[in-house]
Amino acid sequence: MSEYLPGLAGVPATKSNISDINGEKGLLSYRGYPIEQLAEKSTFEETTLLMLDGKLPTRAALTEFDSKLRRNRRTQYHIRDLMKTFPPSGHPMDMLQTAVASLGMFYPVQQHLTQKNAENLDYIHDMTVKIIARMGTIVAMWEHIRHGYDPIEPRADLNYAQNFLYMFNGKEPDPLMARIMDVCLILHAEHTINASTFSVLVTGSTLPSPYSVIAAAIGTLSGPLHGGANEKVLSMLREIGSPEKAEAYVDKKLAKKEKIWGMGHREYKTKDPRAVILEKLVDEYMKARGSNINPLFEIARAVEKVCEARLAHKGVYANVDFYSGILYHEMGIPADQFTAIFAIARSTGWLAHWREQMADNRIFRPTQVYTGEPPRNYVPIEIR
Amino acid sequence: MSEYLPGLAGVPATKSNISDINGEKGLLSYRGYPIEQLAEKSTFEETTLLMLDGKLPTRAALTEFDSKLRRNRRTQYHIRDLMKTFPPSGHPMDMLQTAVASLGMFYPVQQHLTQKNAENLDYIHDMTVKIIARMGTIVAMWEHIRHGYDPIEPRADLNYAQNFLYMFNGKEPDPLMARIMDVCLILHAEHTINASTFSVLVTGSTLPSPYSVIAAAIGTLSGPLHGGANEKVLSMLREIGSPEKAEAYVDKKLAKKEKIWGMGHREYKTKDPRAVILEKLVDEYMKARGSNINPLFEIARAVEKVCEARLAHKGVYANVDFYSGILYHEMGIPADQFTAIFAIARSTGWLAHWREQMADNRIFRPTQVYTGEPPRNYVPIEIR
To answer: How are beta strands A33-34 and A367-370 bridged, if at all?
Structure first.
């Protein structure tokens, strides 16, 4: 028997072609393409298809995929009626797990996977498109339903990021904002075998419907040790209150050996490549807005500057969560929805891993180190 | 880096005190107590508390626990209203995953776990009781709601097994049936680190609400490689049609190297100890019923006899699924609800493992063997 390693740290749990991290050099690639190039030149739709199929699509393939995504944005009114029974206080991640699990009832899978026929590509592709398309719809619907309003119907003339912001806010986003959302979706789409992606493999390995698999992954992402850091960055910036207070705040936290939210990442010894990209977008955004800038950006900049001076030599830099929260806030998205947006983006990576798992499935059944009692006899309750 | 073993077969993923299997000798114990003794002398309620606390409870502790279970059988009418929006064709496992996930919205957790304070026993015990109590309620409610009827209110004067059958069928079960259900719940409550229990550890390790964790496990159990075998046993027996056809059926299947449902278990080289117990109950039941016996039992007996002659030397015997399906059928439970009943029983083991994980939590983040493309440059769509 192998050695027991808590959390399976360092234990390979799958072979995968999808993404790769080089933590020493600060590199992240999807299917071999550096994340910087995808963020600059690709779109969420194209990156999604790349991740699923393993190659950059032709124009015809991309158009077909994008059209199918647009067609599947609508959901049955039954889903809306279901969501209206949720309490308005329901957290968006609990809502999302519930609604995605319910899709298995409303859209029953036509074809159950079997061990011999797990790699049914047409079926897998079809389910994948339907789930990715509906993730954005459901998250945006909840924003209206929880406030007592009917949701806004999706529009087929907008791309994924534009349509999501349109459905969320009820108005078309400006082009820079829509592009920033598009890049945020690309950056969050995949990150090798993290806890939620691993739960896709474990749950998927018994061959349930993909709705059940993605619902499991949403539950895993909902834990505070996984999703939710960008929400905490935002609270931290509000707590700091103004740029000139950043230095004292950071130093106080460091003296108490407390965490600065949005700083450092266990995978990267250098700067998180996704943070580098987001930082450039923040620059671009701030230049475009000029004096209309939200003060939180100025505070964030000040915090990052202090952290760089204090922590860069330890390999601790701003990570992907540091700026995304403020950007989402700027797009009119409330903080409790941030992890749900993460889930929309990550559904792409989850489903790419699900497809990969189906191509060579083996049920997960690790062992345990039994540390309990040896065999003993039952004792009647009278003499315990 | 450790060796890559598909499905993590043989890789220890946790240390656990809860249950132990000796596959060579055909032994299963919960907290050291042989399953045979628990099936004969304990109850589902007592076994549950044993599994959670690690020791057989005093009478006072058991009474308190049982009263709390009984009090928590009721659910808000909001849950009923939610379930009425589900399509009547919704599979009970999809229904159960959806409904349990929704509990996180209706009963928001008062106290979120943190890495430093994951082992908050009062909170964990409270959530555990609430979930176990409501699992039976939800499964029974759906049986009525999906047929267009209001569910039956739980009764606090019945034990778990009795109340479940009462809520399911609308009438009190006879004492032998209630006892058989009680034993079935004990037998299915726990079985070390199978796929669904492993998904509890993986999802739970990010510290989401236990509703999200159990919803993930329900999704994992819903896959045909995990739950559902007893449903297939029932179909098989119906296909065979009469006891005298059993021999020819089995021989034909074996000649084609096809699976006989309900026979053999990867963990046991000898007879599944749970099947031995169920077989005795079937005997008892058949004697009590005399000539009123369902013909499926006679067919099952004939199949088992042929299989014993043909397969016993290979260590293939009837497993826990072989008789449970016919017994559930005899209790008036439709076949598509069998896995949901498995989930009710197993919620006990899932939550015991969740509690154990919380006492020494580490987020699951295994690694991958990257087998994909090396770094390459993005190619514009025009020249692909």
So the answer is: unpaired
